[in-house]
Design a protein that fits this description.
It is a single chain. The chain has 329 residues and is of the alpha+beta class. It has one domain. Helices cover 29% and strands 22% of the residues. The protein contains 8 helices and 14 strands. The longest helix has 18 residues.
């Protein structure tokens, strides 16, 4: 299905946080409507089992592909709205120490089975994807819930950052693609496409044409149309690449690798943290790292709320509502 721009005029809306001006450019597109099933991936991979041995910071695979337990999952699914509201206020008042926001472009609304969609393209080896998935998960939790998430890392030679995977990754495959996740969306769908490569090496990523070929091979119209939209937008600059409702976000919306007191890794402080420490920080936010993750989530949330056909309760939070107004201009 081909989408066509019906209005070529672009209107710039500026959101500011810290020292960065973030631009949301809007062009009216015809929505892309697709009916089809969302892929449910396997919950375990025989050729990429969990690694339970304790390993040193900087070269960890400890607990990779292990599913979060119910308490850990609740830290994402059941985060308090008050955290999102506080972070939105910090974003709007420019009191975050870190920068949130990036250039955002218009995209066609991808309507799957009558519901707006969030689309994600990334790689398990990508350090920016690793950091960004925390904010993504928090944002998506306001429009549905995750039935499962999995512990993961960015590549050992690309940060070794603790992260979450949407599905178990083929961490030792020369090249593989994970389609789908375990997200139950009440207000939006979540279409995820993740590239897997040897996690003990550096960053590696397939081309957009590769993902389209892989999606077409699945025989699934949802994922083949998702990859087609990403290609036709022609603004891909690397991973992560996401579309939130009617807004395309090339790259991460925050570069937030935190602070840590440990000296085990001096290059990326976040790499000195365990998954449990990251979750504990998000469960009771008090650091700039945690508030930045919530503000980055707010940025994504506001893009969804600014899109047609979305009326989730989170959109009514005062701070989020103000962000939405700025996006809409």
């Amino acid at each position: 299905m081909v989408f066509v721009a019906v209005l070529a005029v672009q209107v710039n809306t500026y959101l500011r946080s810290g020292n960065r001006s973030t631009t949301a450019t809007t062009t009216t597109f015809q929505p892309v409507h697709v009916n089809g099933s969302l892929i449910t991936p396997p919950a375990s991979l025989p050729d990429a089992p969990p690694i339970l041995a304790r390993q040193a910071f900087g070269s960890r695979l400890t607990n990779i592909n292990v599913a979060l337990n119910a308490t850990e999952l609740a830290a994402i699914n059941n985060a308090s709205d008050s955290y999102f509201e506080t972070a939105a206020s910090m974003f709007l008042n420019h009191t975050l120490s870190s920068t949130v926001g990036t250039t955002t472009y218009a995209a066609p609304a991808f309507i799957v089975n009558g519901k707006p969609t969030v689309t994600y393209l990334g790689a398990i080896s990508c350090v920016y994807c690793g950091e960004n998935r925390w904010a993504m998960a928090l944002a998506l939790s306001r429009f549905g819930s995750f039935q499962q998430l999995f512990w993961g890392y960015s590549a050992i030679q690309d940060g070794d950052v603790p992260t979450i995977y949407w599905a178990p990754g083929h961490y030792n495959a020369s090249s593989a693609t994970e389609f789908g996740n375990f997200y139950a969306g009440k207000y939006v769908n979540f279409v995820s496409i993740e590239y897997s490569s040897p996690i003990n090496q550096g960053f590696n990523m397939g081309t957009l044409s590769y993902f389209q070929q892989e999606a077409v091979a699945q025989g699934n119209p949802v994922y083949s149309n998702a990859t087609k939209i990403l290609i036709e937008l022609n603004n891909y600059v690397g991973t992560p690449d996401t579309i939130w409702g009617s807004y395309s976000v090339p790259g991460a919306d925050a570069i937030n690798f935190g602070t840590a007191t440990s000296s085990t890794n001096t290059t990326i402080p976040m790499a000195s943290l365990t998954h449990q420490q990251v979750l504990a920080s998000l469960s009771k936010p008090s650091t700039d790292f945690a508030w930045t993750e919530y503000a980055a989530a707010d940025y994504y949330i506001a893009l969804v709320c600014a899109s047609p056909g979305v009326s989730a309760p989170v959109c009514m939070l005062p701070g989020v509502s103000t962000m939405v107004s700025q996006i809409r201009g």
